[in-house]
Design brief:
This protein has about 325 residues and is mainly alpha-helical. Helices cover about 60% and strands about 0% of the residues. A two-stranded parallel sheet has the order 1-2. The radius of gyration is 23 Å and the shape is globular.
Length: about 325
C-alpha cells in the first residue's frame, strides 16, 4: 500500500494531460452519422439513429451502451493498476529482494505499516498523515470515473448501502475467520524466519493516533477491495475470462503487493484473495469484503498499539 501513496498524487495530472494532448476526433464516425437529418432529432426516440441519451450526462442508457473493444479494456486495466496496486506490487517485490540479500535474516528486519511522517512535529505529522490517506484514495476515484464512463455506478460492483445489516454481519464473520487464521499464519512464518517483523504502527502517542489508524484501515480496505476485487473481476468478466482464472489473478495481485512483508504475507494474502474472490462471485457485492478488511486492519493496528510490549506472543517493535 505504500507505493499507492507515492503515485496517487499524480493520477489527476495524468488524466488532465491525456485530455489536453489527445486530438479531438469523432468517437463513432462522421458527424452526420451521429445525429442524422435535423428533423429526426425532434421525432420519437425510435426514429433516431442511435440510443436516446440520458439527460445531463451525454451517455446512452446502460442497456444501449456498446462496450469498448477488448484491446481498450485491457489497456484500461493495465493503466489502473499501473497507478495503484500494480505499482505497489513492483515496489514490494524489489523490497523483498533487498531484504533477502541483506546481511540480517528476515526476522531481524522490520516492515513498518504506519509510521511517523514528521517525527517530533505532531501537527505537521497529522496533516501529512491525512494528506497521504486522502491521496491514496485517488485510484478509487479513477475507478468510479471509469465505471461512470461505461454507464455504471459503484453499486454495479456492490459498493452501496442497500444491505447494511447483511453486509455488516457477513463482514464481521469473515473478519473473525480470516483475521484469526491470518495472525496464526504470520506468527508461524515469523518464527520460521521467512517473514519480517511487521510493525503495524509506530505513531507518536498523541491524541490523533487512534483516529489516524482507523482512517488508515478504512483507506486500505477501500482501495484494495474496490480495485482488486470489484473493478478487476467485473472488467475480466467483460473480456470473457474464465471466473476461476480471474479469481486466481486477483489473488496473485493481492499477494504481490504484500511481498515487502515476506513470503508468508504473500501466501496468506493470496489465500485471502481466493476466498474474497469466490465470495464476491457468490454475493455480487464488495461491501462485505470491504467491511471485513477494515475490521481486520483496524483491530490489527489498534490492537498492536495497545498490546505491543505487554503480551509475549507479539514480536517486539
Amino acid at each position: 500500500m505504500r507505493a499507492i501513496r507515492l503515485v496517487g498524487s499524480v493520477i489527476l495530472k495524468a488524466m488532465t494531460d491525456d485530455i489536453s494532448t489527445s486530438p479531438a476526433e469523432p468517437l463513432t464516425g462522421p458527424a452526420d452519422s451521429l445525429t442524422g437529418p435535423a428533423d429526426s432529432l425532434t421525432g420519437p426516440a425510435d426514429s433516431r439513429t442511435g440510443p436516446a441519451l440520458s439527460p445531463g450526462t451525454g451517455l446512452a442508457p446502460q442497456d444501449g451502451l456498446v462496450p469498448p473493444p477488448p484491446w481498450l479494456q485491457r489497456w484500461e486495466i493495465v493503466a489502473v493498476f499501473a497507478v495503484s496496486l500494480g505499482a505497489s506490487g513492483l515496489y514490494a517485490l524489489v523490497s523483498l529482494i533487498g531484504s533477502l540479500t541483506a546481511k540480517q535474516s528476515l526476522s531481524k528486519q522490520t516492515a513498518n505499516l504506519n509510521g511517523s511522517l514528521a517525527p517530533g512535529r505532531p501537527l505537521l505529522d497529522l496533516v501529512m498523515q491525512l494528506l497521504n490517506i486522502t491521496l491514496s484514495l485517488a485510484p478509487v476515484l479513477l475507478v468510479f470515473y471509469l465505471l461512470a464512463r461505461s454507464g455504471e455506478r459503484p453499486s454495479s460492483i456492490g459498493v452501496d448501502a442497500k444491505e447494511p445489516g447483511r453486509d455488516l454481519a457477513r463482514g464481521a464473520v469473515l473478519a473473525a475467520l480470516i483475521g484469526g487464521s491470518g495472525l496464526g499464519l504470520y506468527l508461524i512464518a515469523y518464527h520460521l524466519g521467512v517473514e519480517l517483523n511487521v510493525v503495524p504502527e509506530s505513531l507518536p502517542d498523541v491524541w490523533w493516533r487512534f483516529p489516524v489508524l482507523i482512517l488508515s484501515a478504512a483507506q486500505n480496505a477501500t482501495v484494495e477491495e474496490v480495485i482488486v476485487v470489484g473493478y478487476l473481476l467485473s472488467r475480466l468478466d467483460l473480456l470473457g475470462v474464465r471466473p476461476s482464472r480471474a479469481i486466481a489473478l486477483s489473488a496473485l495481485i493481492r499477494g504481490s503487493y504484500h511481498l515487502y512483508q515476506g513470503v508468508g504475507a504473500f501466501l496468506g494474502n493470496a489465500v485471502m484473495g481466493l476466498v474474497f474472490g469466490y465470495l464476491y462471485r457468490r454475493w455480487g457485492r464488495v461491501m462485505p469484503l470491504l467491511i471485513a478488511h477494515f475490521l481486520i486492519d483496524a483491530v490489527t493496528f489498534v490492537g498492536y498499539a495497545l498490546l505491543a510490549g505487554h503480551v509475549s506472543f507479539l514480536p517486539k517493535p
